[in-house]
Amino acid sequence: MAALSIGYQIHFHFNPPNFPPLPTKFSSLSFTAKHPLRCHHIGCPKIYAPPAVSVMAFGSREVLPPALDSSSEPPVIFDGTPKLYISYSCPYAQRTWIARNYKGLQEKIKLVPIDLKNRPDWYKEKVYPANKVPSLEHNNEVKGESMDLIRYIDSNFEGPSLFPDDPSKREFAEEMFSHFDSFYKAVISSFKEDTVNDAITAFDSIETALSKFVDGPFFLGTFSLVDIAYAPFIERFQPFLLDVKNFDITTGRTKLAAWIEEMNQIEAYTVTKRDPKELLESYKKRFLSQV
């Protein structure tokens, strides 16, 4: 029998460059030894140098901090630590949260959740005058707008790229970014009407978009900022349309069904998801009261 005496710090933060994350629970392991690794065999003690291992993987789930409200003290602003101000329930903030996770930045960018129903005064006064989430504190500046922030996080932090080099894919990505507002408005209009014609058209456009590239199940083939831009909203639209309008967005849309299935294999995304029942009740309160 061998006796091991080790002092290691273990961190998991996965993603293979240029590939969508594997559905495995462990894809990265990095650790540093405080002391040498001693393996004592009978009559043959040996000392090994600390191993250097760096294999990227989404494995450990970070402990999420509680949301800060009007009674909470503010964090120290501009202390050199990048901070991502979000709400756990906001789909726009969820975009930036996913991007941060996918690039393995859980230890580099600190999450600062805000209670939007009882938001602290100091957030508007000291952090972000627009008083919205998400916002990102980085390099002594605070930036906002989710679409801009996911691009910023991808360009200014380490980790696998979320925007392809292929010119045709970059061009299509820009088209899909521009298309988002019309997609969103079409679906929301169906929430307020007797028919779901606008939603049908909107999701047909998504099915067509997902058929553009055949090298993977995502909008650009491989997982990208485009998937991040759409996922939080489709996550919310799907249960509401099914429950309230009896409209299954995946019926007859095999590409969309496969995309949803593949998205649910990406831990960077799944750890940010809300309970579908919670999303449904939230949307019922928001939209059915307007009908």
Task: Describe the fold and architecture.
- This protein has helices spanning 91-102, 121-127, 146-156, 167-191, 197-210, 225-245, 254-263, 267-270, 276-287; strands spanning 3-5, 8-11, 29-33, 37-41, 44-48, 53-55, 83-86, 110-113, 135-138, 141-144.
- It has 291 residues and is α+β, with helices and mostly antiparallel strands.
- Among the domains are: 83-156, Glutaredoxin (3-Layer(aba) Sandwich); 167-289, Glutathione S-transferase Yfyf (Class Pi), Chain A, domain 2, CATH 1.20.1050.10.
- Strand 7, helix 1 and strand 8 (110-113) form a beta-alpha-beta unit.
- It starts with a strand and ends with a helix.
| Beta content | 5-15%
What oligomeric arrangement do these chains adopt? Answer: single chain
Helicity, as a percent range: 25-40%
Number of strands: 10
CATH topology of the domain at 167-289: Glutathione S-transferase Yfyf (Class Pi), Chain A, domain 2
For the largest sheet, list the strands in their spatial order: 8-7-9-10
The arrangement of helices and strands along the chain is EEEEEEEHEHEEHHHHHHH
Gross morphology is globular
Average pLDDT for all residues: 84
**The CATH class of the domain at 167-289:** Mainly Alpha
Number of helices: 9
CATH architecture of the domain at 167-289: Up-down Bundle
Radius of gyration from the CA trace? 22 Å
How does the helix and strand content classify structurally?
alpha+beta
Low-confidence stretches: 1-59
